[in-house]
Design goal:
The chain has 189 residues and is α+β, with helices and mostly antiparallel strands. Helix content is 33%, strand content 33%. Helix 4 links the parallel strand 5 and strand 6. The mean pLDDT is 91.
Length: 189
Amino acid sequence: MWLRGERAGLGPFSGDLVDQYWRWEQDPAVLVGYGRQTPDSLDNRREGYQHQARGTDDQLRFTVYDLTSDTPTPVGTTSVLIDHHVRTGEFIIQLGENGNRGKGIGTEATWLTLDYAFHITNLACVYLSVLAPNMGAIRAYEKAGFRKIGERRNSGYWLGQRVNEVLMDAIPEDFTGTSVVRNIVSQSL
């Protein structure tokens, strides 16, 4: 595990977990949250992992671990797709099975991913879009440090209805509180 918070940790994106990643991605709540209308095949997901594993210069990809029990358990993934020309990145998170949502794990995993993006990858801005009815996700993103910056109208679907996307971003200047990355670095000096 690379970064640890109280409830969540971030570890490597792993080929050993591709089948689990695929199961999480097929969860109806994840499909609706992403606005996807079709499931993906396991073979296609395995092939997609191979592509993702080769393209690590333009992405941060982490496995999210639940640290609330005795044994850290993989429960989701976070990603930042990087545009190196302007030092920005698009944030994506998925948490599997409903039992892993609403416990603060996603919020803390988002916070840890921003910490890494700002203090190791040195990004100037991390942004995301979320479907407007997904209020739980919006609240979690705000707790983790994202701010609403606008809406894209009629740009997604939620349970068969056309909806807006909320646009959010985070910048290093707004990243307040204790940095896990800074603590790790200062302890090693």
